[in-house]
Every structure is written in structure tokens, then in C-alpha cells.
User: Fold these one by one.
Assistant:
Number 1:
Amino acid sequence: MILLDGLATSQQIKQEIAVEVQHLKAQGHRPPHLAAVLVGENGASLTYVNAKVKACEEVGFQSTLVRRDGDISESDLLELVKELNSNPDIDGYIIQLPLPTHINEHNVLLAIDPIKDVDGFHPENVGRMALGLPCYLPATPAGIIELLKRYNVPTVGKHCVVIGRSHIVGLPMSILLQRNSYPGNCTVTITHSKTTNLNELCRQADIIVAALGKPEFLKADMVKEGAVVIDVGITRMADPSKKSGFRLAGDVDFAGVSGKCSFITPVPGGVGPMTIVSLLMNTLEARKRQI
């Protein structure tokens, strides 16, 4: 079994990005600038955003954290999006999800300029991804693809089962893995809460991407020998033995499943760090488009 170490891989990619940033600066260009909008006081969202800001500092990016109260109106948030779209000093930005329930996330994501949509959520970028055209890929699927590539994980002709159909992970993951390129050329099956023969499908899979948000859902009896398992989930679970009072669990029962795998991602330290570094890669690309 080979552990797909997202933490070590992301550090390597950060070093590569930092070299490119130095090259840009040596040519007289300013470094890439990523902004993040955080609405409200969601603890998990604040943790994620702070990690992205820290990553920007590590590679030499400029970063701006824009905070707004949780009671901001949708119209005021849309006005902020308009300001970010027109700001020439910001190459890309993200609206940290989830947003408060009184705000329509769809309206906000649609208002983002696709050129600055480094999260890859705008319909224009999603459509271009589906057509195999240049675009910003959603950060988590892009991170998984990069991890598979750097570990030379075989994908051609493999049967991949994706558990979960969200527009953030499941759907784009299925599109990327079936592309006529490497990593890709998989036969992909998307499963979800209405799938009746999930266990059977998983046991047929050469590659499983678990992205459903249910801790330790994928058990050993659902995985065949030699399978590749990508665990996208991360959930805080109470654990009095820990100083923090909780532990982080993925969607995969790692202890039971890992012994059957050829490759597997850990939680934490697998997909998470690759998501952040993919955001940096998109922001670097956004900057280079402006030069």
C-alpha cells in the first residue's frame, strides 16, 4: 500500500510556485494577489480561509481577507463582488462557502467574473471544463488529479466509482477522470443517496473517490483488493482522548480499508492540502493571464 501524501506533495508544488513568483518579480511584475471573502463567524470557514492566507504568504503571493458580518444583505454582498471584479490589483478571489441561509449562493457565484473565478465554480468555467477547454478547475478535483499524476497512479481503462454528486467535487471529478488524457480515460460511475447497489458497484471499482460527507462510510467489505481509494471527506468527531476534544475523520474507514489498497489518501494530510495548493495554481495562472 502506498500512501498518497498530499501534505508532502503540496509542499513540493508550493516550492515550484514560489520559484515562478520570484521569476515574475525579477521581470518587474507584481506577485499574484488572491482575495478571500468570509461572511459571518463560521469556525470551520475561518480555519480554511486562514490556511489559504498562510499558503499565500509561503509562496510569495499577496493576499487580502475581506470579512463581512453574517447579516450582510445579498445586495451588499453582490456589490462587494462587483468591486472585486473591477479591482485590477486582485487576480483572483474566492467567496468562502457556505454563506448564510438568507443569501442565494447561486446568485453570488454567478456574479463572479469567470476570469477571477479561481475556485472554478462559475458556469463558464464548469462548461469549459466539460468541453476540455482551458479554464480554472475546481480546486479539490484538480488537487486529486495532480496527486494521481505525481504518484503515477494508473487510470487508463480503469473503472472509477465516485460516491457523491456535488458540483464542488463529485460531478467535476467524474468529468476529469473520463477525459482523454492522463490522469483520465476511466470508465466512471457516479453514485449517490438514491443508488441501490452501491456496495456492489464499489466492489467492482479500481478507483473509488469518496466524497459524501459521512465519516468512515466506506468499509473494507466495499473495496476490492488493489483498489485506489481517494478520501475527500473530513469531519470533526468527538474524542475525549484528544487534547482538542475531537479527531478528524474521513469518509473512509482508513484502518479497515488501507490494508486492501494499492494507493490511499490519509485524513488529514491527503486531499485537503492539495485543494489549497490547487487554488494557488489557479491564482498564479490568473496572474499570468494578465501579463
Number 2:
Amino acid sequence: MKFRTIARSVASLALLLAVTGFGAIPRAKVVLGDEVFLRSTWHDLHGRCVGVVTNQTGVTSQLVNIVDAIRENPHICIKAIYSPEHGLRGDQLAGHFVSSYRDPRTGLPVYSLYGPQRMPTAAMLRGVDVLLFDIQDVGDRAYTYISTMAEVMRAAARYHKSVWVLDRPNPIGGEIVEGPVLDPHFRSFIGLYPIAMRHGMTIGELAEMFNNAFGIHAHLRVVKMIGWRRSMLWSQTGLRWVESSPNIPTWQTTLVYPCTGLIDNGGINNGVGTAKPFFYAGYLGMPAYAYASALNAEHLPGVYFRPAAWSPFFGFWRGRELTGVELYVTHPHRFRSVETAVSLLVAGHRLMPRLRINARGMDDDWGTDAVRLGLERGESAAQIINSWQPALARFMKLRAKYLLYPN
């Protein structure tokens, strides 16, 4: 009798949840490219087999993994999975090589594209006709997922495969564009093509640009979103954020990543190794109140600096107290992340001239040596920012040809 009563209670609760919608994921304002594919575009495969380039972020608005969703459709033939930096489940640290293996859940081979091999080989593509790319980007040139996309497109062109990019939002919006355009002399996997640091584009728009403007010439199709506008930040889409890598746990982190992600090789710690990666800027013995005062006196748009102290729990500075500032983004639509990075570097080096620069690392991060050289010459933040404006204006003209969504 007791167990029957419990069973009836559980059944009643399940019915209540179904009726009220409590616990369900609310409908988003944006229909993702993968949802458009799953609803209708898959018919255009006409029996061709797919390989899926994805990771833990490749989910629908209901948080269903794209591979699982595809396997629910018996009419879609899926042959392989390909994973970027951080691995299929996003649990590998930045820069760590990821191995290939067979997925125990699906039985499919998972080919790593972040190891000795970063472009799919002919063997990896055997039996695959169409490569589906479904990974959430963060809107920053140095984040390697867009480089993986470019390498997949290059392989598709080489081996006569098609690429369908299932488009997703730029979490920091599609209106603000800033930062230096990559100088080809500093081309690397954190910057393959001459685009701005904060490009203000979706992965689908970038794919079109890479393919046509930079000469990949793959057989490309972008499966567009429905309902996304350039003015939207992630919080306005109604979508749920899935940690895109170990140090990007929240969508708010994507706001500051294009800022403090650029200062560590300039000698300033950015809080990686703490519970708030990329929200700090400082050093051992940095005068926190003076640093905060100098930065707040600049009245930088959309951000406030609080004097702060932190102790990383892993990495080089593990267990040591660092001091400096914590960033509070007060107006995300106004915050100029890359320009703020320049101010952090200039003010930091004026307060602590002994800060050491990793020249190679800094130039690779920024995609130019102009920022480092300006810093070494003692130039102001405004002078450094002005130096990249001519190239940025040319990029803006090129970018306009590939924008797929309205403001």
C-alpha cells in the first residue's frame, strides 16, 4: 500500500509538471541553425551521409545534443564525429592535445581536430558526403573554433565534400567591431585570416567570408537562424549557455574574454585559475586602488573597475595573492572590450614599469606587433587604438558583403 501511494504521488507530480510546464526549458526567441536543419533542411541531404563537427555546445534550444538529435532520425546516415580544442565534451584545458577515440555512447569514431592533425584527412572523411559544423563561438578571432571551421572547409574543398554550417548567435552581438585586423605575418591557429579581433559576425557569416574572400572555395551552405538580430546579446536570445570551454563558464565571460584574454602576455594576470576567469587584471604587488582610479578616470564606456585581490588555485601563480582590479560590465551594449584591453595594458605598465612582456606571445595574441611596440614606446591608449583604424575601416567594408542578419 505504501509503495502504491508513492507511485501515485510520483505519477501525479509528473502529470502536474507536464500540465504546468514547470521544469521545461522555455522557448527561445531564436531558432538555431541546427533546429532548422533538424526540422527541414535535412531533406536536402537526399540520402547522403554526414559527419558532424561539434562539441558540448552543439545543442538545440532544448539542450539536445546535435548528434543525439540526428540519430533519432532514421533517415539520416551519420558516419563520424569531429571535435575541436577542449574535446568533444569541452573538458580539456586550453592548448592540450586531444586524442581520437570511439564514442562508447554512439559507437561512432570521434576524430580530434586539435592535436598533430588539425585538418580532417581523407581517411577521416571516408564515407562522409556532407560535413555539418555545429559549435558555439564566442565572437573573438583568437578563439580556435573558427580556425577549426576554416580547416574543415579547406579539407572539404580538397576532398570534394560539402560543408553545411549550422549557424549560431554571436553572444556579444553583431554591431560592435573593434581591434586590430590580423597582420598576415602573425598568422597562427589563433588567427588564420585578416579579420578584426572582435569581428561582430556569426560563424555562418565568417564561413562565407573565409570561403569567398580568402579563397577556400568549398561547397558551402549556411543554414541560417530564424529570429536573430545583430543588436542581440546572448541574454536577449532566450537560449541557455553551455560552457564553451573550461574558462568560459558563462555567457557573461564572453564579454570580457576579448578584453583580458589579450593582457596576460603583456605581463598582467587575467584571473584564469580562479572562479572568475577573465574578470580580473593585475599582478603581484600591483597598487589596486591606484590602478582602479587610473582606469575609472578614463570613463571607458560600459565598464567599472573595482580594486580587488585574488589567489589562483592552479597555474603559475597558484596560492599567491595578486592585486589589481575586477571588471564590472555595466552596459554590455556599450562596452568596448578590445579598446579596454589597451587601457589595462597602458595603465598597468605606467604603474609597474617592471612588468615583463612575452613579445612572441603578445604579438600572436593581438595578430600584430603594433600594440606591443606602442606599449614599449610609451604611447597612450588612444594612439595605439588609432594605429589600427585604417585596416579596420577596410575590414568593415569587406565584412558588409557577408552579413546575413538585420540590426
Number 3:
Amino acid sequence: MLALVLAGLVMPPAPAPAADDLPDIGSPSDSLLSRAEEARIGRAIYRSLLDTGKVMTDPETSEYIQDVGQKLGAQVADDRFNFRFFVVNDPAINAFALPGGFIGVHSGLLLATNNESELAGVLGHEVSHVTQRHISRAVYANARASILTMAAMLGAILLGAVGGGEAAQGAIMATQGMAAQRQINFTRDNEYEADRVGVGLVAAAGFDPYGMPAFFETLARQSGPLASQAPEFLRTHPVTVNRIAETRERAAGYPRPDVADSYGYGLIRARVRVLTSPTPERALAFFQGELLDPVRAGELGTAYGIALSYLQLGRFDDAQRSFAQLREAHPAIIAFHSGLAQAELGLGAPNTALATFQEAMKLFPRNVPLTVRYGEALMSTGDYKQAHQVLLDLFNNVAPNAEQVRLIALAASGAGDTADAHYYMAEYHLLKGDAAMAIDQLRLALSIPGLDNVQRARFQSRLEQVQGFLPPRQGGRPPQGQSQSRPAGFRPGVS
């Protein structure tokens, strides 16, 4: 829904390019909104969304949507884009792209898709809004639109999109006077362009290129309980008969593979349904209803949804039985190992649960959701030292998100590794965009008695680097020859 974030940002657009012309990526629009500025704006808005609590930080869900998205992102010829895909806990059928490659999908849209290629079609469309620089081009069409005004408007609208309430509505109204309501929507040319480029990405990534037009057709026919949700996507992505026809024609130009949904698609849809359901009882009733459908009854997603619902309800005997059967039948699916271990923990059998985790860790080393769940299980049994070591090994190899950094900080603190805990919290605050708090945490880390030379050198080096991100009046002290760019990826324990 990249269209939504442009509301009120630009004056009437310049004449649109010809329908078959792709934009000049190196266009003069870079002089007004560079890639670096796009990334900074997108990162700031993404952090604001995280602060609302509406972004789903569930590791299994995060890994799945990032995996599908990266398959599409890998097909982009320009490797300077760094995409981040995430799921927003919101029943509306919606998706949006932010500057700099941050792409969000509402849980309602994920549940509304019929197959993985439809989901890929939506993601491909949003990826194309980013790669075709539609925000930058729109801003360039009106050089009087300031980046600060744009950032404020983006934040206000997206806050409203995820349930920001009256405060968000007030912020939107305060900044909306500069533009007419009709400027909310992208130009038809931008939408068609995102369709054309997106279908190519979907096909190149190995999905069914008809996934995009199929989802558009589903929305166009929407009726019944979901009808009230559909207009939000349709308002920013107007679906016309001509647009569906053109998208289908574009898809016809690519080979149509005989592609089946991955296991992950059905499992994550079931997981999202359980996690976003008003109550676990409602989720369980839904999946038990699917058992009456001859098609749905045999799907792994249905069985997984029932097992997860049992887990959420505290029916650990039922959950253990269900996950044990699922793991035995499908030993290659990591989620079944984790679910079984979590059920065993619930039954008060920590040694059995840890053994289940350890067996899975041998089969799937450094899998992020599995390792995070194992770390949580170790902490629940009081083994913070081992949790710290396990998580540190993972995050030295796979860059963590903010919640995962906070988890390793808790593990380090519980293990008595206080200096490392402060260091990790500094990284947590950096990922949240608060360099001043990061500086405070690094100073606390340096104040801990008994630091070895490697720790002291690492903490001091990081402190000097972070001080370079702030102006002197805010406590910053740019080190000589030090770049003031955003810090590199988190690598705890590496000096």
C-alpha cells in the first residue's frame, strides 16, 4: 500500500511516462531524496511501527515472511536494495511499502490469500514500488514537498493504519491540508508499472505468475464478512477489469510452473490465525470446523493449528500428543520439534523438553526460530549461562532483530554477565534508534569491575563509534576519521 504513505505529500503530479517505459533509476529525483535518505526515513517509520506493538515479532512468522520476500528481492537486478519484510497484526486486507525497502503485510491479507503465489504476487507488487523509486519520483514531481513533512505524514498515516486511534487521526489531519484527498492514490501508471515489474519478479522467483491477477480477482469479487476489509487495499490499489486483464496478459508471457505451496505457507497461516485470534478457544473452534471439510481436514496447517491452539489453551497433554504425531510423520519440519518441546515444558518435564530441543538443534543447527525457542527454554529452567552461549553463537552468525537482542541481554544478565548485558542493551537501543540510551548502556558496561582487556577494548571502541552518531550538544563526540553512518550489523562478542 505504498500509495497510502504518499497522502498529502505531493502536489499534482507531473505528466506520467508512457505506459511501457520503465523509469530511469538514476533520475534527477535522487538529488531530492537519495537512497540513503529513503533508508533513513523507512527505518525511522519501521521503528515507530515496532513501538506500537503491532508488528508481529514471533520468530517463526518473521522468518517465513522474510524468506518469501527475499526470494523476490533476490531477483532485483540492482543489489543496492536491502529489503525487510514483516507482518502487522491487523485484520484488514492490506500491504504497504516504505522508503528504503521496508515492506509490511497485514495478517488479514496473509489469511485472505489462497496460496503462496498469491502472497508472492502482493509482495512482488510492493517490492516493485520500492525498486521503481515511486516515492522519490513523486517527491521530485514537487520539489516544494520537504522530506521532514513527508516523514511526518508517513508516520502519521501508518500509525493510523495500525490502529493509532484519535492521536494518529489528529496528526493526519494536521498535515493533510497541503494536498487534496485525491493525492492519496498512486497514479495509475505507477500501479501498472508495479504490476508489470512485480509479475516478472514472481515468475523469476519460481512462483506462479498468475498469483497476482488471481488475488486481484479475489478482491474484486469480495463479498460477505471480508467485504468491509477489502476497500482499504482496493482504495490504494484500484483493481479494474482492464488492470486484471493486463496483469493476466503479462503473466501469460512467462512459463507457468507446476508449483506447490511450501509447508511453511500453510503452517504460518495457521500460526498467524492462532496468534491473532481473540481467544485460543476461537482458534481451536475454527480448525476443528476445518476437520469437517474433506480438503482442509487433511492439510498440515489444520493439524498444526489444532496443536498450537491446545498449547495456547494450556492443554499440554493434548498438545504433546498432537505434536509428537506430527513430528513422527514429518521429522523435517522444524516447527513440530519446537512445538513438542514447548508442550513438554508445559507438562513439567524440562529435561525431556531440553533433550527434544537438543536433538532438533543437531538436525537444524543455527535455525533462528528453533534456537530462540531453545534459548527461551533454557532460561525458563534457570540455565542462563547456556542460553547466553547458545544465543551468542547464533547471533554471531545471523544478525538479530531488536527483540532477539533484548533476549540475549536477559540471558547475559541472568548468567551474571552484567557487562555483556549492558553491551547488548546498547545494541538494542541502537536498533530502536536511540543512540543516547546506547551510550549510557556502554558507559555502564565500561564501569563494571573485572573487565578483561578484550571486553574493555570492544566496549570503548563501540562507545566511540556510537558517539559519532550524535552531535556534541547531545553527548556525541565524533571520533577522528570515524564515519557517522549508521552502525553495522550486531555482532556481540566480536571485537
